[in-house]
Amino acid sequence: MLGNFMYCNPTKLYFGEDSLAGLNEELPKYGQNVQLVYGGGSIKKNGIYDKVMEILKANGKNVFEDAGVMPNPTVHKLYEGCKIAREAKADLILAVGGGSVCDYAKAVSVSAYCTEDPWEKYYLQMKDVDNEIIPVGCVLTMVGTGSEMNGGAVITNHEQKLKIGHVFDERVYPKFSILNPVYTYTLPRYQMVAGIYDIMNHITEQYFSGEDDNTSDYLMEGLLRSLIHSSRIAVKNPTDYEARSNIMWIATWALNTLVAKGKSTDWMVHMLGQAVAAHTDATHGMTLAAVSMAYYRFVCPFGLEKFKRFAMNVWDVNPEGKSDEQVAVEGLQKMEAYMEDLGLTMHLKELGVTEEMLPGIVESTLVMDGGYKVPDKDEIREILKNSL
Amino acid sequence: MLGNFMYCNPTKLYFGEDSLAGLNEELPKYGQNVQLVYGGGSIKKNGIYDKVMEILKANGKNVFEDAGVMPNPTVHKLYEGCKIAREAKADLILAVGGGSVCDYAKAVSVSAYCTEDPWEKYYLQMKDVDNEIIPVGCVLTMVGTGSEMNGGAVITNHEQKLKIGHVFDERVYPKFSILNPVYTYTLPRYQMVAGIYDIMNHITEQYFSGEDDNTSDYLMEGLLRSLIHSSRIAVKNPTDYEARSNIMWIATWALNTLVAKGKSTDWMVHMLGQAVAAHTDATHGMTLAAVSMAYYRFVCPFGLEKFKRFAMNVWDVNPEGKSDEQVAVEGLQKMEAYMEDLGLTMHLKELGVTEEMLPGIVESTLVMDGGYKVPDKDEIREILKNSL
């Protein structure tokens, strides 16, 4: 039910092939010192780095580089970024990359002037931000996380075997994001399909909750249908602008708070996947894919009506002459076939997980209570075992 | 196709039964002088006026009343509102009412300090705003127009027989809007269903354009399905919170620029309806309803694929064994039956239009070129004749 809530999403988006020009609109709004955050250097190979630097220079900015953000940004890297931000007196943090780079930029933006240990305060204790926040802007080169238009920032602590996401309030949302579908063309297939599944799972995590009649569910069915359609085109032809642009746009709207309105939201697939990543450092979307079918088959009987609706409205399962269970199961089979076609990782073993690692992963799994069934430790172990 | 565009919607929404409390968060951000804009006084009968005044007083505001905003706000009323705003030195214009009241508030906000004639500058010449803009906040009591989260402001000039909407940029969007579904319970049935059809038509005006594969179309199909479902409940039980809250939320997202992304958009039903209103002063949603079926039957052959998709994805028409034309026509029949069930005005005669008035209405109809067929004057006359 759409109960009491506040909606506010102030991020300004520049979308399309010419969207990098939006930087010229935005940069004059900030001071001279820009902390340029990026990952392993692929932006240097594909030319995006040069284009961004040219615009930064043309706008008279002092650039402070903060490279090497890893796919699962670590707490050590976060401390390093905070130091750069303070020393540079950064007026703007410009993230050029995918969700990890955007997440990291937001984590630095709230942590640089945090007087306590930010991992302790913002991740273990999940406190609200009460210190100075450095503005963040994003140039997106990968899609999936929705980080370009939300307050999410996931950080991994390998020593503690924890990967935790804090969803910060709208003061921490990127002030602007540049979304150019063409920048996603050169992404390796593995990362592309992992990102597509991350999007799908963001939607299903929110969809599979509640038993009410809610407009958010109808919006999510639309997003899912469009995603399934466009992703099938994109895997065949990665430079299909229309497909890639739809996927980019869906990613943003899948996780910018809109479709969560009125939903308790589940997020257990993410909790399982993040626990796997804390033990393997595997690609985020693939950790989700590997545990999804086992999780959804576990939870399906507890949310049968919704899984039936999912089968009919998203996967066009014809319900005639079938029981609710049969319809629901057929929907999950269609989803599984789609995932296999996409080339997703369907088993944890492919990510290096062994049976011996399961107890540790179970311990690292945070339990959320918004879905159709709150799993206990035995059930989590069983789901992970069925995912091997 | 999702080409180059900018998306930015800064309006903060407070939604739900307790949302009026959001005023206490917002009022301290503005100066002391508040211009309180409302309509014919229904807010005094249902108690909303007293509740709003209490909060304004508790926040130490000087209230300058600007009542009597009519369903189709006139250019004369606009001049009056500008005078009140200047004399009051209004720091905030607070609109309490439906779309007309919100539209009017935005028109005053850009016109109060306009040194030229605002009707001439912002409506006939459609110029950009280059003068001071007074911030606007809204407390919504009727749903339909989406005015609570966009830059639209329709003004009527009876002398010139013109009703024109200017869509202003995001500086003119309401800074905040209070959306309490309970406030819509007491609305007379006629206004309720007119508002519901206004929402539906906002979506179809955008949906029936383009032949590409666009995520916006999928989102609109979701909004339409949810609207059809909830409106059928609301007409039977106007105090069903779930249905009314979904309708309120759909209204906002139907016309806050999101689903227009990548669409050329049609808007000819609105142009026809606004021409009818300029000659009759009839209720907006009913003018749209009365011309819709004739218009869509006219344009259907030019956008057959989309009308077929509409029939299947929105109205669940089974296409098996049918031609594309048959599927499309069946979809429109289902839409017509739904409209009749809702109790909408299906003929212009019911709004006081006579055959003799048609040439004048044809002259008042602005022609847009984003739909599947740009109608010429003869076609417009034919559509209006078929709507009688």
From TrEMBL, chains A, B:
CDD domains: BDH
Entry keywords, A to Z: Oxidoreductase
Pfam family, one: Fe-ADH
Domain Fe-containing alcohol dehydrogenase-like C-terminal: 193-387
Signal peptide: none
Gene Ontology molecular function: alcohol dehydrogenase (NADP+) activity; butanol dehydrogenase (NAD+) activity; metal ion binding; methylglyoxal reductase (NADPH) (acetol producing) activity
The protein's name in its UniProt record: Iron-containing alcohol dehydrogenase
InterPro entries, per the entry: ADH_Fe/GldA, ADH_Fe_C, BDH-like
Domain Alcohol dehydrogenase iron-type/glycerol dehydrogenase GldA, residue spans: 10-181
GO CC terms: cytosol
Organism the protein comes from: Parablautia intestinalis
